[in-house]
Amino acid sequence: MRVDVTRRGGVAGVSLHATLDTRQLTETDAPRVEAALRALPWGRLSQGSMGPDRFRYEIVTAGDDHERRVMLSESEIPEALRPLLALLADRGQIRPASIE
Protein backbone atom coordinates (compact mmCIF):
# COMPACT_ATOMS: atom_id res chain seq x y z
CA MET A 1 0.00 0.00 0.00
CA ARG A 2 1.32 3.46 -0.87
CA VAL A 3 0.88 6.17 1.77
CA ASP A 4 1.27 9.89 1.03
CA VAL A 5 1.43 12.31 3.95
CA THR A 6 1.42 16.07 3.48
CA ARG A 7 1.87 18.40 6.44
CA ARG A 8 0.98 22.07 5.99
CA GLY A 9 1.14 25.03 8.32
CA GLY A 10 3.35 25.75 11.29
CA VAL A 11 5.16 28.98 12.05
CA ALA A 12 6.67 29.26 8.56
CA GLY A 13 3.65 27.85 6.71
CA VAL A 14 5.83 25.27 4.95
CA SER A 15 4.34 22.21 3.22
CA LEU A 16 6.19 18.92 3.72
CA HIS A 17 5.46 15.68 1.89
CA ALA A 18 6.42 12.04 2.37
CA THR A 19 5.59 8.87 0.44
CA LEU A 20 5.89 5.44 1.96
CA ASP A 21 5.24 1.97 0.54
CA THR A 22 4.32 -0.44 3.33
CA ARG A 23 5.71 -3.34 1.27
CA GLN A 24 9.18 -1.86 1.78
CA LEU A 25 8.92 -1.68 5.58
CA THR A 26 10.33 -4.19 8.03
CA GLU A 27 8.15 -7.01 9.36
CA THR A 28 7.89 -5.01 12.59
CA ASP A 29 7.02 -1.61 11.11
CA ALA A 30 4.58 -2.69 8.38
CA PRO A 31 1.86 -4.09 10.70
CA ARG A 32 2.13 -1.05 13.00
CA VAL A 33 1.71 1.38 10.12
CA GLU A 34 -1.19 -0.57 8.59
CA ALA A 35 -2.94 -0.76 11.99
CA ALA A 36 -2.55 3.01 12.40
CA LEU A 37 -4.04 3.57 8.95
CA ARG A 38 -7.03 1.35 9.73
CA ALA A 39 -7.76 3.56 12.77
CA LEU A 40 -8.17 6.73 10.70
CA PRO A 41 -11.60 8.34 10.15
CA TRP A 42 -11.43 7.88 6.37
CA GLY A 43 -13.49 10.24 4.27
CA ARG A 44 -13.95 12.75 7.05
CA LEU A 45 -12.62 16.19 6.25
CA SER A 46 -11.29 18.16 9.17
CA GLN A 47 -13.72 20.70 10.54
CA GLY A 48 -11.60 21.45 13.59
CA SER A 49 -10.29 24.94 14.06
CA MET A 50 -6.84 25.51 12.72
CA GLY A 51 -5.13 27.65 15.35
CA PRO A 52 -2.22 29.91 14.50
CA ASP A 53 1.03 28.09 13.81
CA ARG A 54 -0.66 24.67 13.92
CA PHE A 55 -0.24 21.84 11.44
CA ARG A 56 -2.82 20.20 9.17
CA TYR A 57 -2.19 16.73 7.76
CA GLU A 58 -3.53 15.18 4.56
CA ILE A 59 -3.10 11.41 4.37
CA VAL A 60 -3.82 9.46 1.19
CA THR A 61 -3.48 5.71 0.76
CA ALA A 62 -3.61 3.84 -2.52
CA GLY A 63 -4.13 0.10 -2.56
CA ASP A 64 -5.05 -2.49 -5.15
CA ASP A 65 -8.18 -0.79 -6.46
CA HIS A 66 -8.97 2.04 -4.09
CA GLU A 67 -7.74 5.36 -2.76
CA ARG A 68 -8.66 6.84 0.61
CA ARG A 69 -8.07 10.37 1.84
CA VAL A 70 -8.43 12.18 5.15
CA MET A 71 -7.50 15.66 6.38
CA LEU A 72 -6.87 16.23 10.07
CA SER A 73 -5.75 19.14 12.17
CA GLU A 74 -2.80 18.60 14.48
CA SER A 75 -5.11 18.23 17.49
CA GLU A 76 -7.23 15.56 15.73
CA ILE A 77 -4.39 13.10 15.03
CA PRO A 78 -5.39 9.78 16.63
CA GLU A 79 -2.86 8.31 19.05
CA ALA A 80 -2.61 5.23 16.80
CA LEU A 81 -1.35 7.39 13.91
CA ARG A 82 1.46 9.10 15.81
CA PRO A 83 3.91 6.18 15.27
CA LEU A 84 3.53 6.55 11.47
CA LEU A 85 4.28 10.27 11.62
CA ALA A 86 7.25 9.61 13.93
CA LEU A 87 8.52 6.88 11.58
CA LEU A 88 8.44 9.24 8.61
CA ALA A 89 10.23 11.96 10.56
CA ASP A 90 12.85 9.56 11.98
CA ARG A 91 13.66 8.19 8.55
CA GLY A 92 14.02 11.71 7.17
CA GLN A 93 11.24 11.09 4.69
CA ILE A 94 9.25 14.23 5.36
CA ARG A 95 10.55 16.58 2.69
CA PRO A 96 9.45 20.01 1.46
CA ALA A 97 6.49 19.65 -0.90
CA SER A 98 6.91 20.91 -4.44
CA ILE A 99 5.69 24.40 -5.12
CA GLU A 100 2.46 24.27 -7.04
Descriptive account of the structure:
The chain has 100 residues and is an alpha+beta fold. The chain has one domain (2-96). The chain is built from 2 helices and 5 strands; from the N terminus they run ββαββαβ. It has helices spanning 29-38, 82-90, and strands at 2-9, 16-21, 55-62, 67-73, 95-96. The longest helix is centred in the middle third of the chain and has 10 residues, at 29-38. The chain is globular. The protein starts with a strand and ends with a strand.
Structural class estimated from helices and strands: alpha+beta
**In this structure, how is the largest beta sheet organized?**
5 strands, antiparallel
Helical residue percent band:
10-25%
Tell me the β content. 25-35%
Counting H and I runs of at least 4 residues, what is the number of helices?
A: 2
Overall mean pLDDT stands at 79
Q: Provide the spatial order of strands within the biggest beta sheet.
A: 4-3-1-2-5
Can you write the helix and strand succession as a string? EEHEEHE
Rounded Rg: 13 Å
The number of E-state strands comes to 5
- Give the distance, in angstroms, between the N- and C-terminal Cα atoms: 25 Å
Oligomer: single chain
Q: Choose one word for the global shape.
A: globular
Given as residue ranges, the uncertain stretches (5+ residues, pLDDT < 50) are: none
The number of distinct structural domains comes to 1
